[in-house]
Write a structure and sequence with these properties.
mainly beta, elongated, 119 residues, 7-stranded mixed beta sheet
Length: 119
């Protein structure tokens, strides 16, 4: 089982990026999914989270600018990032709770994707 991220890159302030993270391998189901980020010299922080249904959390710093969504049929979570700011620069990590077998839950992390916001 692995999480594979894509969509990072460099953008100017005010720009947009869309991150994707797909779970692959053999498993029973994917439960909660989320995006974290870690900037240089800072701790990893939760950016947004989503259950099988609606989003459950947004960090105050991204509310109104970022949108988390998921496609359960594809076991994929997305993070649409608009109005990007230099302070959004970080490595973004996907996280998911995956049941490899029913009731056997484990946390998985993606490899991380760099997002750089700079003029």
């Amino acid at each position: 089982v692995q999480l594979v991220e894509s969509g990072g890159g460099s953008v100017q302030p005010g720009g947009s990026l869309r991150l994707s993270c797909a779970a692959s391998g053999s498993f029973f189901r994917v439960n909660d999914m989320g995006w974290y980020r870690q900037a240089p010299g800072k701790e990893r922080e939760l950016v947004a989270a989503i259950t099988n249904g609606a989003p459950t959390h947004y960090a105050d710093s991204v509310k109104g600018r970022f949108t988390i969504s998921r496609d359960n049929a594809k076991n994929t979570v997305y993070l649409q990032m608009n109005s990007l700011r230099p302070e959004d620069t970080a490595v973004y990590y996907c996280n998911a709770e995956i049941e490899e077998r029913i009731f056997t839950r484990r946390d998985y992390w993606g490899q991380g994707t760099q997002v750089t916001v700079s003029s």
